[in-house]
């Protein structure tokens, strides 16, 4: 499972590096949020429909990056996110940028 995700990630990373550099961070962030499966828990556009998963839509980009780095380093402990955050490596900023600009749905 992890191998497949890593393969998808590599292909995506390659596609992005081959694509235009002017590709907006936001659309890269959106693509990664989908490709890494973040949206399957945190909901479309970061609007979670699961009471056990926090919504990320409209939250401060800097704060989101900080949380991801803390999950990566283990400073913040959560079994799921300690496994997920390393997969977002290199895309923390674009994912955070994308989420911070998403509207909050009720
Ligand atoms: C299997 C479900 C699942 C997946 C997939 C997942 N998350 Fe999470 N995420 C959670 C849960 C549950 C928490 C709450 C963790 C806690 O209580 O500390 C969380 C917390 C977070 C937080 C901190 C939010 C807060 O309010 O403190 C961020 C940021 C985050 N996730 C980003 C991501 C990103 C980016 C991805 C994709 C790389 C991702 N998550 C994938 C379940 C998931």
Structure, explained:
With 106 residues, the chain is mostly helical. The chain has one domain (2-100): Cytochrome Bc1 Complex, Chain D, domain 2. It is 58% helix and 0% strand. The chain is built from six helices and no strands. Helix 2 (25-35) packs across helix 6 (92-100) and helix 4 (61-73) runs antiparallel to helix 6 (92-100). The protein is globular, with a radius of gyration of 13 Å. It binds heme C.
What is the rounded Rg? 13 Å
What molecules are bound to this protein?
heme C
The CATH topology comes to: Cytochrome Bc1 Complex, Chain D, domain 2
Q: Helix coverage percent of residues?
A: 55-70%
> If you average the pLDDT, what whole number results?
90
Named CATH architecture:
Orthogonal Bundle
Spans of 5+ residues with little confidence (pLDDT < 50)? none
Number of strands: 0
């Amino acid at each position: 499972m992890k191998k497949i995700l890593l393969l998808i990630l590599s292909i995506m990373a390659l596609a992005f590096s081959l694509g235009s550099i002017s590709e907006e961070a936001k659309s890269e962030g959106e693509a990664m949020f989908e490709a890494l499966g973040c949206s399957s828990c945190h909901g479309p556009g970061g609007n979670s429909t699961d009471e056990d998963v926090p919504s990320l839509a409209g939250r401060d980009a800097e704060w989101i990056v900080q949380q991801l780095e803390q999950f990566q380093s283990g400073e913040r402990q959560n079994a799921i996110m300690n496994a997920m955050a390393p997969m977002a490596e290199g895309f923390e900023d674009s994912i955070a940028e994308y989420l911070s600009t998403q509207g909050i749905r009720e």
